[in-house]
Design brief:
With 222 residues, this protein is an alpha/beta fold. Helices cover 40% and strands 23% of the residues. The model has no long low-confidence stretch (mean pLDDT 97).
């Protein structure tokens, strides 16, 4: 099997908080990372900032080049642009592991809530748009704040649920998760079960707001 650190991880939406936080940890662990954005210039700037914090090999590119030049691609873009972006990158993502961590959420005066998705979930939408890719779902509940704070947070103590229909792909994503000190990758079921995982993010946000913390998940008995 290929050593996980020999693979290049692309992060679509790598200038956003969640994508950038994960990129910091992976770069620090010795993974080659490409930050993707609609603007290559903005991506390159984010890559330089990550190297200053975490070291490692990090570059920036537009989304198409990021997808084309990566072995594994994390999708961490806003829900509003999720479908259009993935449809445009179908060829570049063919044959690759795609990790969807997008949470379709809305916000009103009562707080966060799950949005209805025609395909069932963001991950299932990705699966339909990328029939030649190995689509997985993971990293929905990780704290961007804790991930980015490499200087003060040495370990991020939480489990990462990994869903998907390809066993080898989910095992690879679990291994990638465990490069982050404190993370444990746990298989969470097939991709058809991604809806409730995405939706549960609304509950975690509510917990964090009430208790002023950065809560995550821990699975007992495993």
């Amino acid at each position: 099997m290929t050593e996980i650190r020999d693979l290049t991880v692309g992060v679509l939406g790598g200038t956003g908080a969640q994508g950038k936080g994960l990129a910091v940890r992976w770069a620090h662990a010795g993974v080659k990372v490409i930050i993707g954005s609609r603007s290559a210039e903005r991506a390159e700037l984010a890559a330089k900032e990550i190297v200053e914090v975490a070291g490692g090999t990090v570059s920036g590119a537009d989304n198409a080049d990021t997808a084309a030049n990566s072995d594994i691609v994390l999708v961490a873009v806003p829900w509003e642009g999720h479908g259009d972006l993935l449809a445009s990158l179908r060829d570049q993502l063919a044959g690759k592991i795609v990790i969807d961590c997008v949470n379709p959420l809305g916000f009103d005066k009562q707080g966060p809530f799950a949005l209805p998705v025609t395909e069932g979930s963001a991950a299932q939408q990705a699966e339909l748009l990328l029939p030649e890719s190995k689509v997985t779902a993971a990293f929905h509940h990780v704290s961007a704040v804790l991930l980015a704070d490499l200087a003060n947070v040495s370990e991020v103590d939480m489990d990462v649920l990994v869903l998907g229909d390809d066993r080898e792909a989910t095992d690879t994503v679990r291994e990638l998760a465990e490069l982050v000190p404190g993370f444990r990758g746990v298989y969470g079921g097939r991709l058809r079960n991604a809806h409730q995982v995405e939706a549960f993010t609304a509950n975690l946000i509510a917990v964090n707001r009430r208790y002023k913390t950065h809560a995550g998940l821990k699975i007992t008995g495993v």
